Amino acid sequence: MIGTGGTFLPDGTGGTVGFSGASGGATGGIASSSGGASGPLGSAGTGGSPQFDGAGGAVGIAPLNERCTAELSQGGEPIAVAYAPGDRLLVQLREPALLAVITGTQAGLPQQTTLILSSESRADTGHTLFHANSGGGLACASCHPEGHDDGRVWDFEGEGARRTQDPSGGLLKTAPFHWNGDMPDFSTLASNVFVGRMSGPALSSEQTRAMQGWVEALPELPPLRAASDPAVARGKALFESPATACTSCHNGDQLTNNNSVAVGTGQSFQVPSLRGVGWRAPYMHNGCAATLADRFTDATCGGGNQHGMTSQLSEADLGDLIAYLQSL
User: Going by fewer Cβ within 10 Å, which terminus of the chain is more open, N or C?
Assistant: First the structure.
């Protein structure tokens, strides 16, 4: 992946980024895993794209020319790998969009042919920043793979245990950010996390906007339960009932009122969106609930009546309520 072999270098001219290794010559805008400074990847997403053999960039199988071979050997943006009969390694790249069939090496470079999947560049500054090594050996994607979350709980000095949050499905509508609700906007979030926690360089305003735009466009995960499920309909009625008071905090399009609330877990924490909540075990700010059922039954972990009036619900009612949450 981009950024695995060097140090992140913003050029400070408004949105372009590059990478540097330990030594060596230019690599034409692609991250190098073996050293050597690279040229910039432009904010328009066109810098460093390889030239292919073949007429007019038409889709087809063609040998990689020398430049494309060198770029694949030094990084590119591989997104999937597989082995095929005959000791062949298949590598799918996002940028450039191709499938490389590697049959061996010569002089340290892969011997390969390629299926060119598209002549249209998929390069994107926001995507690059999100997946780049910040300089401290981390990328945003380290904890947010595919733009979602790693399902882990991390212990931060001065804050305590924090469950990784999922930024997909309309992050900007859930400001302020982080469990403490202490980051009012994306610019603050980028500065505190990318620069502070991850030891990255300061981002220009254009780079911050590019990353914000890429994150904001991340689609939410599909629901785990169909809306047509009868249990979902019963659970929705329970969720929206004044008797349970779930909607006093979880309301609106993102099912959050964007406030910090104390629910019996030690202090006030930001009300999270419930979109895609079925995928986000373990639950609560510190991951204390292994399942959605545990969230309702463990009084020390968001259960009881400080977190919605749910203690009176029967086991069947809780099953229906969980079914509704899984449909979001």
Answer: N
Cβ of 65: how many Cβ atoms within 10 Å?
14
Q: At what angle do helices 230-240 and 315-326 cross, to 10 degrees?
A: 100
- pTM of the predicted model as reported, rounded to 2 decimal places: 0.72
SS3 183: strand
Instruction: Tell me the C-alpha distance between 28 and 156, whole Å.
Output: 38
- For tokens 């328009």, the residue is 44
Residues 6+ apart with CB under 8 A from 126: 210, 211, 212, 213, 214, 215
Residue 92 has φ and ψ, to the nearest 5°, of -95, 130
Please measure the distance between the N-terminal and C-terminal CA atoms of the chain and give it in whole angstroms.
Answer: 32
Tokens of 309: 């009036």
Per-residue pLDDT tens digits for 96-115: 898 989 888 788 777 888 89
CA atoms of 152 and 169, how far apart (whole Å): 19
Bridge partners (DSSP) of residue 62 are: 114
Share of the chain above pLDDT 90, in %: 62
